[in-house]
């Protein structure tokens, strides 16, 4: 092979390598720009919860397990010390005024989302309305703590004597 042929082949390989590298960089840039960019289309509703542990801005809002919106804002009410959450619901979903909102998790280790249970009222929630029936998130740590303390307290309780249980102590 001549030196000129080797140089030509090296140039082609370098050009192909540069094009592949540019393609990978472009794909990464598009992936970074597109991640987490869901639009908040629809109308906004508000709800107040005792606890919103694990619920983040961008978390899903679901009706019957189907995503219909997302959480758009969270803040603490300085007077009630409850977490006020704003979220969107798609325009195609019109919720009754007696609907309820529950923060639940997507499995044992999954993320949190707001589950909306539609009520039976004939009136609909207007954009900007407050969902009045709410239940905050229940953390796994709180449940385990209650279980451990209830078991520990159960061991300290006095045992029932035969007389106290209503059984005769004699055989």
UniProtKB/TrEMBL annotation:
This is Phospholipid/cholesterol/gamma-HCH transport system substrate-binding protein. Residues 42-119 form the Mce/MlaD domain. Pfam families: MlaD. The keyword Transmembrane helix applies. The chain crosses the membrane at residues 12-33. It comes from Endobacter medicaginis. Keywords: Membrane, Transmembrane, Transmembrane helix. InterPro entries: ABC_MlaD (IPR030970), Mce/MlaD (IPR003399), MlaD_Phospholipid_Transporter (IPR052336).
């Amino acid at each position: 092979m001549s030196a000129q042929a080797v140089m030509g082949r090296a140039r082609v390989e370098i050009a192909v390598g540069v094009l592949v590298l540019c393609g990978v960089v472009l794909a990464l840039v598009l992936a970074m720009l597109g991640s987490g960019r869901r639009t908040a289309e629809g109308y906004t509703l508000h709800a107040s919860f005792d606890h919103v542990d694990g619920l983040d801005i961008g978390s899903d809002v679901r009706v019957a397990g189907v995503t219909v919106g997302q959480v758009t804002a969270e803040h603490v009410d300085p007077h009630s010390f409850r977490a006020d959450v704003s979220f969107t619901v798609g325009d195609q979903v019109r919720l009754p005024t007696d609907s309820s909102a529950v923060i639940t998790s997507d499995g044992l280790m999954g993320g949190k989302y707001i589950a909306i249970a539609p009520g039976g009222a004939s009136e609909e929630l207007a954009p900007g309305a407050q969902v009045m029936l709410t239940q905050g998130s229940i953390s796994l740590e709180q449940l385990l703590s209650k279980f451990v303390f209830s078991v520990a307290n159960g061991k300290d309780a006095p045992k029932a004597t035969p007389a106290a249980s209503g059984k005769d102590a004699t055989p």
